[in-house]
Specification:
549 residues; alpha+beta; Immunoglobulin-like; Glycosyltransferase; 2 domains; six-stranded mixed β-sheet; four-stranded mixed β-sheet
Length: 549
């Protein structure tokens, strides 16, 4: 029963505490589906004598009252934390939470929360395109990729024009391109009708973006047994900020090539997933071509593994992966789905039984995603996934925000999103609701239910990251569609980086000895958007908004 408007107005005037009261209500600022788990966190510098919370409609009427959990203690920079669970409230509408004399940002309850996020992320991919770029309009960039050869055996550098700039800089990587391509393909496979090329919606760009990634991967696999793994070196960061079409290094863009099983295996996995997506979208020629590349990469990866060709050091490369088994897991699973051949699944089963989980998800660990994809057809994959899910659940239960990692590595938000995707894919294949609950809490963290109270997804929520470490948008004077921040990092790692912030730190009082986050264009550790994170986030919101019984 709602209160009269006059009473509500008086209540609101009395309820709102003065600024700097030391109480913050941290909630997903975009919203929840009616049946979602719905949890906000109240962070306070003082103990709360009154643990009542209220759910208020946009007009101020109080529609739901509940009790906060007992104090869960100190976490990062704040002394006291309480959870407000309003899962039972399912009425669609726009709301705010009231607790401790403060109110939260506005959020919604309704169907498909964050449904527009994938389209925004696809616009980010267009900005990241190297070569011809549609948004924002500008001249083609880096037409000479690559200009010199580093490592390996070849007479001259391969043609590596195209692809995506990895992040706010202009380097291109095999690993992150392959992972982004894989996630785009899986998102399409989960919901082809949403991303259909004939839909006439912005989301129809997904297949076109998938083609862009696949074309560059095909160029990278320029010779049997060899693959390009990185275009450009650290000089990219030493010449100052510039637009890509004005890059003074356009004729100085070296490429590393390798013959190692990790790169070849990940290439195989991405091409096999793309083959499935092209088949579903009616692009049969591209499907056949991608599958041919995937199977070639698979054979070459196993040959490299038998011959012991594993990268022992970085040798100037930014991404090193000395453990190829997880990439081969994913390649085997995707090749089984693409071909229906049981030997691929048998290899995957043997790897799931033999390899110990790494307990994280990133460009360097594909095992969790592989296990989740295969859990409905492979008992070893399901057992592997169950161990991962129990581990993440255990860590999430230790803090009020359900943060599922033991520390704050570089790219913590991307790792969280990867864990959410693992959990959701596992739920979709097995029906295990634990997976969806864990994923929802990670979604909420991304959208504002985190210790800094900011949505890490550009343009979504009331208070979102804005000052990204991203040269194109900063120099062009435009906002960044689809940017996703890297998330908090270990404070010691930030301190050792030598980064000097460009502006005053609006989160200064929330920084702690354990983790820091800065919405600052100079902070590439916590606020640089990447194609890998964008693809993970696109997959997350695609999977969350699938129709369920």
């Amino acid at each position: 029963m709602s209160l009269p408007a006059s009473v509500v107005l008086l209540f609101a005037q009395l309820f709102v505490a003065p600024p700097n009261s030391g109480v913050r209500i941290l909630v997903n600022q975009v919203g929840f589906a009616p049946r979602d788990l719905k949890i906000a966190v109240v962070a306070s510098d003082r103990l709360l004598a009154d643990r009542t919370f209220h759910l208020a409609a946009y007009d101020g009427s109080i529609l739901h009252t509940g009790t906060l959990t007992p104090d869960e203690g100190t976490y990062l920079a704040t002394a006291h934390h309480y959870r407000a669970d309003f899962t039972s409230f399912t009425r669609p509408g726009d709301y705010r939470l009231l607790a401790g004399g403060m109110e939260s940002h506005r959020f919604a309850i309704g169907p498909q929360p964050g449904a527009a996020i994938p389209d925004s992320l696809l616009r980010f991919f267009q900005i990241q395109r190297c070569g011809y770029v549609r948004i924002p309009p500008r001249e083609p960039c880096h037409p000479y990729d690559a200009t010199a050869l580093l490592g390996g055996e070849a007479k001259r550098p391969p043609d590596l024009t195209g692809g995506w700039h990895d992040a706010g800089d202009y380097t291109k990587f095999l690993q992150t391109t392959a992972v982004a391509t894989h996630r785009l393909a899986v998102a399409y496979l989960l919901n082809p009708s949403r991303f259909g090329i004939s839909s006439g919606k912005p989301s129809s760009h997904l297949i076109e973006e998938l083609k862009w990634g696949v074309e560059w991967l095909g160029k990278a696999h320029f010779r049997e047994g060899w693959i390009a793994v990185q275009v450009q070196d650290s000089t990219d960061h030493s010449v100052g900020w510039r637009l890509p079409e004005k890059d003074p290094l356009s004729r100085n863009r070296p490429v590393w090539i390798d013959d190692d099983p990790a790169h070849l295996g990940l290439f195989s996995a991405a091409m096999a997933a793309a083959s499935q997506a092209f088949s579903r979208s009616g692009e049969s020629r591209l499907s056949v071509k991608a599958l041919k590349e995937a199977e070639a990469g698979w054979r070459e990866a196993w040959k490299a593994l038998r011959e012991g060709r594993v990268i022992a050091d970085d040798a100037g490369r930014r991404y090193r992966d000395p453990h190829p088994e997880d990439n081969l897991m994913l390649a085997a699973v995707e090749l089984h789905f693409a071909t229906g051949k049981d030997p691929y699944l048998q290899v995957a089963d043997s790897l799931f039984a033999a390899v110990q989980p790494g307990y994280w998800v990133s460009w360097g660990d594909m095992a969790g995603i592989a296990a989740a994809r295969a859990s409905s057809i492979s008992r070893p994959a399901q057992e592997f996934a169950e161990r991962l899910l129990s581990h993440y659940d255990s860590l999430a239960a230790r803090n009020p925000f359900a943060y599922p990692l033991e520390s704050f590595p570089w790219g913590s938000a991307a790792s969280q999103t990867g864990i959410a995707n693992f959990a959701l894919l596992y739920e979709l294949t097995t029906g295990d609701e634990r997976g969806k609950s864990l994923a929802i809490r990670q979604r909420d963290y991304l959208l504002g239910a985190n210790p800094f109270g900011v949505s890490f997804v550009a343009g979504f929520g009331t208070d979102f990251s804005r000052s990204f470490h991203h040269q194109v948008t900063y120099l062009s004077g435009i906002s960044l569609p689809g940017g996703v921040a890297e998330g908090p990092i270990d404070s010691a790692a930030f301190a050792s980086s030598g980064i000097v912030l460009a502006a005053s730190d609006r989160f200064a009082r929330l920084q702690s000895k354990s983790a820091v986050y800065h919405d600052d264009r100079n902070d590439y550790l916590t606020n640089e958007p990447t194609v890998y994170q964008a693809a993970e986030t696109l997959l997350l919101f695609t999977a969350l908004n699938l129709p369920r019984p």
